[in-house]
Amino acid sequence: MKSRYDNEMELHFLSKSSNEAFARITVAAFAAQLDPTIEELADIKTAVSEAVTNSIIHGYENTEGIVKLKATLLDNVVEIEVSDNGKGIEDVELARKPLYTTKGNLERSGMGFTIMESFMDEVEIQSVVEIGTKVTMRKKIKKEVENEEGEELEETELTQENTLMNS
Ligand SMILES: Nc1ncnc2c1ncn2[C@@H]1O[C@H](COP(=O)(O)OP(=O)(O)OP(=O)(O)O)[C@@H](O)[C@H]1O
Ligand SMILES: [Mg+2]
Question: What total number of domains does the chain contain?
Fold first, then answer.
């Protein structure tokens, strides 16, 4: 069967906090094919880390379950899905709000979804109570293009340079 993506991968792992680093490093290695900047890679790792941690501590509440991670590449967009078959979220809109947490006693700050939204271009949350939660995140990796001198510039910088030269 031909994939509709340029590349894709899937991982299933136990909901142990020791797997959080494994998940974020694996996605970063996979997304590296799009030639992201260090900052873009750091953003992806942070977002994956927040989503995976949520599945482990909220979805499964530290009981044993399977966390699924799927990543795809299409053109210069990386899409990452993190899902669990855990307890689910009652009110997704509320859960997205900054500082909202159901585990304030465990020193969670309620900033996970806000961080995912600020570091990725799109974040979708699908959740059903007692069935589970799926978080889908997308990020466009800005392509670097070469200017006449052969220096690598990001698209935005090149646009700025053209504007300066034409003005
Ligand atoms: N996978 C999940 N399963 C069940 N509930 C979830 C899941 N992910 C998030 N939630 C719920 O959404 C709330 C908000 O999540 P968010 O990541 O923004 O904050 P937090 O995890 O409580 O705190 P922080 O991420 O700052 O440590 C959580 O407190 C929890 O109630
Ligand atoms: Mg969180």
Answer: 1
Q: Is 155 a catalytic residue?
A: no
Residue 11 lies in a domain: yes
- Rounded Cα distance, 128 and 99, in Å: 22
For residue 45, what are the domain limits? 7-142
Of 26, 27, 25, 14, the C-alpha closest to 55 is 14
Quick check: is 1 in a domain?
Answer: no
pLDDT digits (tens, 9 = 90+) for 34-45: 999 999 999 999
Q: Virtual CA dihedral for 41, 74, 67, 87, nearest 10 degrees?
A: 110
Any domain includes 113: yes
CA–CA gap between residue 114 and residue 99 (Å, rounded): 9
Whole-prediction pTM value?
A: 0.89
Which of 83, 108, 119, 120 to mutate to test ligand 1, by most ligand atoms within 8 A of the CB atom?
A: 108
Which of 81, 82, 112, 80 has its CA nearest to residue 95?
112
Whether residue 36 lies inside any domain: the answer is: yes
